[in-house]
Write a structure and sequence with these properties.
alpha+beta, Uridine Diphospho-n-acetylenolpyruvylglucosamine Reductase, domain 2, Uridine Diphospho-n-acetylenolpyruvylglucosamine Reductase, domain 3, five-stranded antiparallel β-sheet
Length: 266
């Protein structure tokens, strides 16, 4: 690890000022990706700005048909939240599938979303659950947030403050996990918003996306077998030592069918 200056601001304004005053700054959330990257000397920021001291970034609230989660809320807190379990139980289930106990107690939802790891779990929920990503000075539609591998719509220096989720009538998430890391080789979230079906896919390509073909057939016939009629091309899908692009395309259909079956079972 290369030398760096460590800061722990207590307000968003202080964090932004520190960021703007550095030549090569980086924000630290849970650190599940940043710290290992720095240890391997693959990143050498001049200033590390730890957001853990900003109390306003943590918490879960419900207002009307929206559930809002502060960006610094840990996966474990999402998993255990009574409000999440009551209003969007699929989110609690998804959070419980992330990594191990250490990762769930240190990693944060905002850090995961901002990192845009192609195999992270939350992105499937972001693109399918009618979300809004709130930053200091603007809000971003969840379907427009992920741009590419580790690339999002965030501008330099922007901080995710909270994520607002719409409440589906019912939903389910299923993934094929890497046996070591528990990352999603492919993960699919299917949500029913009063008869309007949304499908979010993570792990297959460079970033999470909606599966419009599956949404179309499921809106016409909400059964796992309906997915058989959908062609999932593997062009542009990830291919690595864990799974080929062709296998990932196959897994998208398998996980989608399992998610639909789980949702219908209630």
């Amino acid at each position: 690890m290369y030398p760096f200056k460590y800061h722990r601001p207590t307000s968003l304004e202080e964090a932004a000022s520190l960021y703007n005053g550095s030549d090569d700054p980086v924000y630290l959330s849970g650190g599940m990706t940043l710290i290992p990257t720095m240890k391997q000397r693959l990143a050498a920021p001049a200033d590390v700005i730890d957001l853990s001291g900003i109390e306003s970034l943590t918490g879960i609230s419900v207002k009307g048909d929206k559930l809002t989660i502060g960006a610094f809320t840990t996966h474990a807190a999402v998993m255990a939240s009574a409000d999440v379990r009551k209003h969007i139980p699929v989110l609690a289930y998804l959070a419980a599938q992330i990594g191990d106990a250490q990762v769930r107690n240190r990693g944060t939802i905002g850090g995961s979303v901002a990192n845009s790891d192609p195999s992270a779990d939350y992105p499937a929920a972001i693109v399918s659950l009618g979300t809004t990503i709130h930053c200091q000075n603007r809000s971003i539609d969840g379907t427009e947030f992920f741009k590419d591998l580790f690339e999002t719509a965030l501008e330099p220096g922007e901080i995710i403050t909270s994520i607002e989720f719409s409440m589906p009538t019912r939903a389910a998430y299923r993934k094929f996990p890497n046996p070591a890391s528990r990352y999603a080789v492919v993960g699919v979230l299917v949500a029913d918003f009063g008869g309007s079906i949304r499908v979010g896919v993570t792990g297959a390509g460079p970033c999470a996306c909606r599966a419009s073909g599956m949404e179309k057939v499921l809106n016409d016939n909400l059964k796992p077998a309906a997915i058989d009629a959908v062609e999932v091309p593997d062009a542009g899908f990830n291919s690595d030592l864990h799974a080929s692009a062709e296998y990932r395309a196959h897994l998208v259909k398998v996980m989608a069918k399992r998610a639909v079956a789980a949702m219908l079972e209630g």
